[in-house]
Amino acid sequence: MDDGKGGRGGVGAVLLAPVAGRTWREFAYLLVGLPLSTLYFSLTITGVSLGAGLLVTFLGVPVLAGVLAMCRGFGRLERIRVRVLLGAHISEPAPIRAKKSGPLAAMGAVLRSGSAWRHALYSVIHFPWAVFAFCVALTFWAVGWTYLLYPLWFWVLPTWTDQPGLQLFQNDDYSFYLDSPAEIALTCLVGLAVTLATPWLFRALTTVDRVVVGGLLGASRLDSRVTELESDRGVVVDTAAADLRRIERDLHDGAQARLAALAMDLGLAKEKFGQDPQAAARMVDEAHGEVKTALQELRDLARGIHPAVLTDRGLDAALSSVAARCTVPVRVEVDLAARPAAAIEGIAYATVSELLQNIGRHSAARSASVDVWRSGGRLLLRVADDGRGGASVRAGTGLAGLAERLDAVDGVLVVDSPEGGGTTVTAELPWRS
User: Fold this and answer.
1) Least packed by Cβ within 10 Å: which of 14, 21, 41, 73?
2) Domain annotation covers residue 3
3) How many Å apart are CA 384 and CA 352, to the nearest integer?
4) At how many degrees (to 10) do helices 221-250 and 398-407 cross?
5) CATH number at residue 358
6) Where are the alpha helices (DSSP H) in 149-276?
7) Domain that holds residue 335
8) pTM, rounded to two decimals
C-alpha cells in the first residue's frame, strides 16, 4: 500500500512483516491453539460419550448439561484469546435463562440451548484444524528462519559435527550438502522468501479461526436481532416519551395559557357588561382574537403530530404543505404509485418536516429540494439544500436523534454535508404496505 512516500511504505511493510507484533501474536495464537484444542476435544468427547451412555439412567442428563456448560466456558476463553492475540471482538452469545427456578429447569435450559451445542461442536471440530494450523505454521516459521539465518550458523556444522554443511539428502553412494558459497546464498534467498510469505500464511490461517469462532462461539443472528430490537424498543419508548413531553409543554405554554387568559378576560368582560358595555365589547372582541390564535396554535400542534392532509391525501400533498411553510423555496417531487404503511408514512412525513425545519433555521440556503420514491421494498427520501453545509450526525445533534428514530424501524439515515457545499440527507425506510 502506498503511504504517499514513493511506495516505500508498502515495501517496508512487507519486509518488516516477519518481525511485526501482529505476526508474532498470530504465531502465538496458532501455537497455543493446539494444546487448548486438544484439551477441549478430549474433555468434550469424553463428557458427551459418558453422558450419552448414562442417558439410560437419569445421570446422563446432568452429565450432558455439565459438559455443555463446560463448553461454554471454553468458548469464553476462546473469545478472550481471539480478542487479545488477534484483536477481533466476538460478541457474547445470549445468556442461558431458565423459565423456572431449580436445578432441573437450569439443566433443561442448557440442554435446549443452541449456543451451548454450538460451543460443543466447536470443541470437537476445531481440534483437527488446530493440528493442521499448528504443523503448517511451525514448519514454515522454522524452515524460513533456519534457511534465512543459515549463513550465520553454517560454521557450526563443520566445527562441531563431521558434516561440511546442512545435508539435504543421502543415498548409498552420494550425499548432498549445502556448503558452497552459491548454495549458502541460494539457501538464504529461499529462507527469505519463505520468511516473507509466512506472515501472510499466518493471517490466512487465523482468518479461518476468526470465521469459525465468530460463527460458532459468537452471538447468533437471532440473538443479535433480539438485542437490536431491544435497543430499538428503548429508542422508540424514549422518542415517544420526548414527543409526549413536547406536546405537553406546547399545550401548557401555548394554547392552555392562552385559554386561561381568555377565561379571565371573559370573566372581566361579564362583570363590566352592566357598567360599561363599550369596554366589555372591546374585551370580548380581544377575546375573540385570542380564540383564533389559540385555535391556530392547536391546529399547528395537531399538524405536527399527524396532519389530516397526510391521512386523507398522502405524502405528496402533506410534504407540499410542509414545503410551503418553509422559509426557503422548496421543490417537492413524490414518485409513488401506492402508499406505504401508515406508520412508515408518518415517520417519513416527520423526517422531512424536521429536515426542512433545520434548513430554514441553520443552513442559510437559497433553495432546497425533496425527492421521495420507492426502490424495491424500501421508501427513499432525499432532502437537499445549497446552504453552508457542515451538518453532522454526531451524538447530541438533532440529526443523531433522527437517525436513532429511523434505526428503530430498520431505517437508515445518510448525511453528505461538506463545508460550504450544501447538505444532502438521504433516508431509507421499509415500505411495509
Assistant:
1) 21
2) no
3) 11
4) 130
5) 3.30.565.10
6) 150-153, 156-160, 181-216, 221-250, 257-273
7) 313-430
8) 0.55
